[in-house]
Each structure stands twice: as C-alpha cells, then as structure tokens.
C-alpha cells in the first residue's frame, strides 16, 4: 500500500495508460503488469474492445435480423485483471466485423471497406447495438460482475466510440464525415440508453496539432454537437508547450461550435524513443532517445496537471504501457510508434522498464499525493 504523504493535486483517474498486445498475452502477464501500473500511479486504463474479435461470426440474415455470436472470453480476462488491480477503465470501440460491413472484404472500394484493424459498419445502428451489449456485460449492472462475485466490481462508465477517423488504419480515406457523425450520434444514444450516467468520450482527434483543429471543425460542421460529453484528443507534438498550444487551438473550435464548456481528454499521449532505432526518414519530430523520451513525459504530464483547470482537462492517458526494443526488419515498413512504451519487450521476450516508466511514476505519484518509490527488480 502506498501511503499518501502530500496533498493530491489531480482528481482520481486523471492519469492513465493503454493496454497493448504485449501486456495481454496471458492472464499471468496481465495480473503482473496491471499491478505494476497501479504501483506506478495509473488509475485509469484505456481498453480497446475490437468489435471484429468479439462479434466475429453470424448466421445468415433473415428478414433483416442479424444473429451474432458474441465471444467475451478475451475481454472478460482483460476486464477481470484490471478490476483485480483496482483500475478504472475507459472502453474504446471500433473495427467492424465482416458481417457488419455488408460482406465486403479487404481491398473492395467502399466507405465500408476494410482497414488494417477492421471495417466500418454498413448500418450505424449495428455499432450502437454492440455498445449496448458491452454495457450489458461490463456496465454498472453487468453480467460479468454478477458471474464473478469474487472480483470487486469496477463497472466501465466511460465509453469512446471509434478511433482517429482521419487515419487509413481505422477508416477508409477520405472518410465520410457525415456518416461518421451519424455513427457518433447513434453510439451516444445507445450508451445513454444502457447507462444514463455514463460519459461518452468523443473519438480521438489527431495526431498533428493543426490537423486536429481542422478535423474537429469539419466534424462539428457536419453536426457533431450533442454526440459527446467530452472531446478526445490524440495529439503527438514535440514537447509540452506544443501540446498545450494544440489543446488551446481545439478549445477555440469547441467554443466556436457552442461546446466550449465540455472537458477535453488527452486519450492518447505519446513520445517515441525511436531515435537511432527506426529506419524512418526523416525522423519524426516526436522521436527521442530513451532519456529524451523520459524527459518529455515528465514535462508534459506535469504541464497537463498544472493547466488542468484552466483548460478543463479531464484526463491524460499515456500510449502505451509497453512496446518493442527493436524495429522489425525490411520489408516491414519502419514504425517509430512501436517505441512509445513505458516498458519494452526485448529480443528474448523479456519485458523491462525504460527510463520513461521512472519519469511517469515519479511525476504521477507526486501529483496524486503518493510516495514515489523505486521499484527494484522491475
């Protein structure tokens, strides 16, 4: 138990992180890593519910009705491990399965075509129904908690429909702004119908500061107002000052469209330690060595906490908890984002901490009013 020794300067759940494939390889890995997250000050975990993994299959349609087969096995394991570690969760949902895209396959030309992580639903009500299913499972009266009385319930009360709609990995480009806004309103109504007290977090907008401002403006112009209780930003600038500038720019857009009172959630913050490790040319301005990554994390998290009330920032979630230590060789494309983790998986499969985790832990525990302790052997 970490003793509280100073005044807490941020609300509970302000700081969080993201799970990833390396953290969720087994229940044992999750229990170990989620416990370490809690020790390091993580209070909120952003969990991706990939629709195409949970409702992958369906029998044929009859009379307009879709009968899906829902498999919560993997998501049950993740939610259970997070709850055991005392972590609150944010559920983000995207990636339509084949049946929801009208049967299209990768490469077919359509706004519903597949992307790297799944498709876009042909009918917006299908993703609304799926979000309702998730709340029925993991919400305040969720069947998961009833079936697992030995786990202290941590119902998911924050839901984020979709992910970075302007990126081809998540939606075919150029993406259909009007249809995206339609989906957003359908998801909002579905969440509020299933759990009126839940927060609907707007999809992550980013990653470039100027692009995020223009994208948010275009979404609002298409009728986005009323589809979110908070705006999610995924902005990856060079440093803390640029991060604050990006938040202010997006706040101006929100105010212009009558949403200046809504909170902002930095639902993805990342700095990469790819400098000297990634083949990408020219280097991304967000790239540092491991010491530089740690310095930027320390400065940025402190700045977000300092300006929290001024800019009405609800939370700051670092992406991600773990990554790799080496970039896969060609012909795989260079990927500096695999180096954003606070921890890393080495070539022999061992997960070790980077200086970034020390920086995260020290600043977060201090702001949460907890002791900052050296975690030996981690």
Strands in their spatial order, largest beta sheet: 5-4-3-2-1-8-7-6
CATH topology of the domain at 43-201: TIM Barrel
Rg of Cα set: 20 Å
Looking at the overall shape, the CATH architecture of the domain at 43-201 is Alpha-Beta Barrel
Report the end-to-end length measured between terminal Cα atoms.
Answer: 17 Å
Q: How many H/I helices?
A: 11
* Element-level helix/strand string: EHEHHEHHEHEHEHEHHEEEEH
- CA-based shape: globular
CATH superfamily of the domain at 43-201: Glycosidases
Number of strands: 11
Q: Quick recap of the structure?
A:
This protein is of the alpha/beta class and 378 residues long. The chain is built from eleven helices and eleven strands.
How is the secondary structure organized here?
Layout: E1 15-18, H1 27-39, E2 44-50, H2 51-54, H3 73-84, E3 88-94, H4 124-138, H5 143-147, E4 158-161, H6 177-194, E5 199-200, H7 209-221, E6 231-234, H8 240-256, E7 264-269, H9 290-306, H10 308-311, E8 313-318, E9 322-324, E10 343-345, E11 351-353, H11 355-367
Parallel strand pairs: 1-2, 1-8, 2-3, 3-4, 4-5, 6-7, 7-8, 9-10
Antiparallel strand pairs: 10-11
Helix pairs in contact: 1-3, 4-6, 7-8, 8-9, 9-11
Describe what you observe in this structure.
This protein is of the alpha/beta class and 378 residues long. The chain has a domain at 43-201: Glycosidases (TIM Barrel), CATH 3.20.20.80. It has 11 helices and 11 strands. The strands form 2 sheets. Strands 5-4-3-2-1-8-7-6 form an 8-stranded parallel sheet. A 3-stranded mixed sheet has the order 9-10-11. Strand 6, helix 8 (240-256) and strand 7 (264-269) form a beta-alpha-beta unit. It starts with 14 loop residues before the first strand and ends in an 11-residue tail after the last helix. The model is unreliable at 59-65 and 373-378 (pLDDT under 50).
């Amino acid at each position: 138990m970490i003793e509280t020794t100073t005044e807490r300067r941020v609300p509970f759940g302000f700081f969080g992180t993201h799970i990833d494939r390396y953290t969720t390889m087994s229940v044992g890995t999750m229990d170990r890593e989620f416990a370490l997250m809690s020790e390091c000050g993580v209070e909120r975990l952003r969990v991706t519910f990939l629709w195409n993994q949970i409702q992958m299959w369906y029998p044929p349609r009859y009379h307009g009705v879709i009968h899906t087969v829902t498999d919560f096995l993997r998501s049950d394991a993740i939610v259970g491990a997070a709850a055991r570690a005392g972590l609150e969760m944010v559920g983000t949902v995207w990636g339509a399965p084949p049946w929801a895209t009208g049967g299209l396959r990768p490469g077919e030309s359509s706004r519903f075509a597949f992307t790297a992580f799944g498709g876009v639903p042909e009918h917006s009500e299908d993703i609304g129904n799926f979000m309702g299913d998730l709340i029925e499972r993991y919400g305040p009266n969720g069947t998961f908690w009833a079936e697992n009385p030995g786990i202290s319930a941590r119902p998911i009360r924050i839901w984020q429909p979709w992910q970075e709609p302007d990126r081809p990995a998540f939606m075919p480009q150029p993406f259909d702004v009007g249809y995206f806004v339609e989906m957003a309103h359908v998801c909002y109504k579905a969440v509020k119908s299933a759990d009126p007290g839940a927060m609907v977090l707007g999809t992550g907008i980013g990653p470039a500061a100027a692009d995020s401002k223009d994208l948010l403006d275009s979404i609002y112009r298409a009728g986005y107002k009323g589809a979110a209780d908070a705006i999610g930003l995924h902005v990856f600038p060079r440093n803390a000052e640029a991060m604050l500038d990006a938040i202010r720019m997006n706040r101006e857009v929100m105010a212009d469209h009558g949403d200046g009172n809504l909170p902002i959630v930095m639902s993805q913050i990342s700095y990469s330690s790819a400098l000297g490790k990634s083949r990408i040319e020219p280097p991304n301005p967000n790239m540092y060595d491991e010491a530089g990554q740690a310095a930027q994390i320390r400065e940025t998290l402190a700045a977000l906490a300092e300006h929290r009330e001024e800019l009405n920032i609800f939370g700051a979630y670092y992406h991600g908890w773990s990554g790799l230590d080496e970039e896969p060789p060609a012909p795989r494309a260079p990927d500096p984002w695999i180096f954003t983790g606070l921890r890393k998986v080495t070539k022999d499969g061992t997960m070790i901490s980077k200086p970034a985790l020390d920086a995260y832990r020290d600043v977060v525990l201090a702001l949460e009013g907890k002791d900052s302790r050296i975690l030996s052997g981690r």
